Amino acid sequence: MARSADTPTTRELARRLLAYETAEAGAAKTDTQAVSRVCDKLRRPLTTLAGIAGFRSLLARALTLAQKESPDIGGWAVKPDGSLEGLNGEAAQSGAVLIAQLIGLMITFIGESLTLRLLHDVWPDVVGSEINSGRNKSNERAEQSQDKPVADRSIWT
Question: Which are the contacts of 36, defined by CB distance < 8 A and separation ≥ 6?
């Protein structure tokens, strides 16, 4: 079963990134400009990693997933250079959905560690190591036990 790329943790991180960009830009900037700024700041490292076509594909997929939850962003589109167009005044909530989907897809395709590193490189004051991709402690223990030799596994005794 496929896991959704959007989790409560990625949604919260997306809100924090948008709030940071809104504060950095000043009161005269709108929520739509914060969404553009977040996407633009992610474009450089992701283009270096996957090329412009890879970044456009990732952002376009995130937009498609976000449009299912927020139909009011149906007019948004990804331009050939990877920037967004058609942003309207509905960005406050919908922008967080888009950014959360983008972060979730990054975690899916390049992994949590590299995603966190890229996000921290761009926003060192905002991003820490708190993403856990919605995993719980029992999943983490199960993953750790897979690294042990078979003789050390308690299920075999």
Answer: 83, 84, 87
